[in-house]
């Protein structure tokens, strides 16, 4: 049942009897020694003391691990991650127990049964920025209303692929009774489908936060009768064939198996084959299968093949109707350094039909 679904959230830490504290008067060297001994340090008095300690930790590690070679950079990052995650903040009555702290509504929403607990500072910083996105919303060029992404749910920061989809939908002249949106995320493609007149959209996602978030944002509005959700992999319970199936899958192959990989970004070895196999049964004879993809994995060298091209060449299930592409805007000056390959990045809209 979707109503019992629990979203993922940072694990609360219970408050220990004894804990070192860090505030304006605290000895920085001693505090870092405590962290290095693997013990927790609690930020007290002002929220900003947390940022101060993080900065001190960075300075300390820069001297210890000068960051010159690739190996040193990795050591620096892993040491910083380990130590910063021992810095904790107290939450009392669903609020940060320090002065001048941001109000973060996730405490109440995500931890209804636990009012008092600790979280690490990096977790709190993550919750804080997610709360800003959620509250202020994000304008999407192809949608009239802002979206309000729930904690832990993927949302796009560039929109070329959504423009491709919108242009394709403008020209689509098939039936608009129903569509299936695999991996619905924050619901953008489903909202585009509704905007273009689809009567029903059946969405799935393996991320509980996506389902909980959409359920909450649709509430009992008209939209909640147009977009139906299932917390499940691929097509979930949506077995009835549809005239349109859309999937904006993860764009990068996972490089090593791990439980912690973000399923919005990395695909595993079987995802595409499983998807096409199931899609074959759920696409009406004249239906269209639309996939949104990018050459990101190929231009960064992490993948040799494009899994959609591979399906068309070898799968024996679908053939290509058309592929539309659009260049991704150059990265801004600020991010150019890390993103020289962005110049060649292209997003793709693949339209496949039954063979
Ligand atoms: C790149 S995001 C796209 C989200 C949204 N459709 C959009 O275009 O903004 C991919 C989504 O697919 C979901 N996902 C990954 N593997 C899945 C699977 N096997 N079944 C269902 N959803 C999956 C992820 O959790 C994520 O929400």
Task: Describe it.
The structure is a single chain. The protein is an alpha/beta fold and 355 residues long. Strand 3 (87-92) and strand 4 (95-96) form a beta hairpin. It has helices at residues 28-36, 48-64, 70-84, 106-110, 121-136, 160-171, 188-195, 208-218, 223-226, 271-282, 296-299, 307-315, 333-336, and strands at residues 20-22, 41-43, 87-92, 95-96, 117-120, 178-182, 200-205, 227-231, 242-247, 252-253, 266-267, 283-294, 318-327, 346-354. The longest helix has 17 residues, at 48-64. The strands form 3 sheets. The protein has a 7-stranded mixed beta sheet, with helices on both faces. It has 2 domains: 2-134, no CATH class; 160-354, Rossmann fold (3-Layer(aba) Sandwich). Helix 6 packs parallel to helix 7 (188-195). Bound molecules: S-adenosylmethionine.
Bound molecules: S-adenosylmethionine
Derived from helix and strand composition plus strand pairing, the structural class reads alpha/beta
The CATH architecture of the largest domain can be given as 3-Layer(aba) Sandwich
Say how many strands there are.
14
> Helicity, in percent?
25-40%
Q: Using only CA atoms, what is the Rg?
A: 23 Å
pLDDT averaged over residues: 93
Tally the structural domains: 2
Total count of helical runs of at least 4 residues:
13
Q: Return the CATH topology of the largest domain.
A: Rossmann fold
What's the shape?
globular
Oligomer: single chain
C-alpha termini separation: 37 Å
Instruction: Name the beta content range.
Output: 15-25%
* Lateral arrangement of strands in the main beta sheet: 8-7-6-9-12-14-13
Unreliable stretches: none
CATH superfamily of the largest domain: Vaccinia Virus protein VP39
Major sheet details = 7 strands, mixed
H/E order of the elements? EHEHHEEHEHHEHEHHEEEEHEHHEHE
* CATH C-level label of the largest domain: Alpha Beta
């Amino acid at each position: 049942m979707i109503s019992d679904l629990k979203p993922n959230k940072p694990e609360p830490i219970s408050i220990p009897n004894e804990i070192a504290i860090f505030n304006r008067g605290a000895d920085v060297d001693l505090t870092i020694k405590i962290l290095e001994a693997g013990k927790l340090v609690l930020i007290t008095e002002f929220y900003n003391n947390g940022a101060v300690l993080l900065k001190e930790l960075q300075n300390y590690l820069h001297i210890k691990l000068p960051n010159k070679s690739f190996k040193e950079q990795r050591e620096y990052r892993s040491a910083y991650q380990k130590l910063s995650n021992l810095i904790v903040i107290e939450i009392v009555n669903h609020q940060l127990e320090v002065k001048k702290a941001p109000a973060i509504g996730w405490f109440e929403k995500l931890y209804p049964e636990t009012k008092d607990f600790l979280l690490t500072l990096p977790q709190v910083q993550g919750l804080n920025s997610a709360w800003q996105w959620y509250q202020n919303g994000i304008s999407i060029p192809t949608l009239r209303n802002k979206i309000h992404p729930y904690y832990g749910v993927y949302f796009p920061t560039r929109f070329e692929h959504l423009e491709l989809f919108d242009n394709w939908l403008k020209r689509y002249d098939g039936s608009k009774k129903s569509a299936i949106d695999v991996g619905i995320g924050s619901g953008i493609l489903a909202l585009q489908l509704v905007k273009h007149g689809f009567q029903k959209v059946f969405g799935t996602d393996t991320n509980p936060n996506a389902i909980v978030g959409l359920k909450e944002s649709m509430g009992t509005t008209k939209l909640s009768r147009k977009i139906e959700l299932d917390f499940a992999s691929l097509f979930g319970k949506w077995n009835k064939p549809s005239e349109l199936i859309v999937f904006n899958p993860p764009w990068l192959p996972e490089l090593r198996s791990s439980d912690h990989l973000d399923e919005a970004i990395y695909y595993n070895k079987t995802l595409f084959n499983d998807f096409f196999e199931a899609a074959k049964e759920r696409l009406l004879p004249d239906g269209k299968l639309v996939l949104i993809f990018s050459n990101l994995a190929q231009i960064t060298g992490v993948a040799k093949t494009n899994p959609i091209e591979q399906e068309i060449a070898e799968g024996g299930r679908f053939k290509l109707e058309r592929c539309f592409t659009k260049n991704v805007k150059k990265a801004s000056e600020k991010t150019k350094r890390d993103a020289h390959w962005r110049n060649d990045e292209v997003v793709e809209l693949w339209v496949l039909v039954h063979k």
